[in-house]
Design a protein that fits this description.
single chain, alpha+beta, Nuclear Transport Factor 2, Chain: A, two-stranded antiparallel ribbon, 30% strand, globular
């Protein structure tokens, strides 16, 4: 029986390759963890802006960018002008994250059924759309100057 012995050079190639693969897996995990953390920081700020009239809507600039950011801030200001607040919780489940370079996507089953638009006395505003079923969203995030920002979420179905 012939025995094969790896040369020192071949062994170095194998070790370096395994090291790169391991580092890449660590980077992917680290990046996904950063995206996950930032994504939920955004939702915490979103809930705070819409449920607490003393929270400055511009705080969302720390977590979102683009036309979506302008639309959300405008919606918060309009809600306050009409003396409305949102109460309850926004539920999240079945969150999946893909990330590559400076771009990431979060797929999230978002449940708004316990999130209600109310007047300042806590009475529900008439005519509001209430989702009875959770909605599946695809939410892109871009890394800008080392920080992740939510872009335009897209509703892609129910879950």
């Amino acid at each position: 029986m012939k025995k094969r012995i790896l040369s020192a050079g071949a062994l170095v190639v194998v070790v370096v390759t395994l090291g790169i693969v391991g580092f890449q897996q660590y980077q992917d995990w680290s990046m996904k963890n950063a995206v996950h953390e930032r994504y939920f920081q955004y939702w915490h700020a979103y809930e705070s802006v819409f449920s607490n009239s003393s929270t400055d809507p511009n705080i969302l600039e720390n977590y979102a960018r683009g036309n979506y950011l302008r639309k959300v801030i405008s919606g918060a200001k309009e809600s306050r002008k009409n003396n409305n607040l949102s109460l309850g919780n926004i539920g999240h489940s079945d969150v999946h994250i893909t990330a590559l370079g400076d771009y990431a996507t979060v797929q999230d089953c978002i449940n708004f059924k316990d999130w209600r638009l109310t007047d300042l006395a806590g009475k529900p505003v008439e005519g509001q759309l209430i989702h009875s079923q959770a909605q599946l969203y695809e939410v892109p995030l871009n890394r800008i100057d080392g920080q992740w920002y939510v872009m335009q979420p897209n509703e892609i179905g129910t879950c």
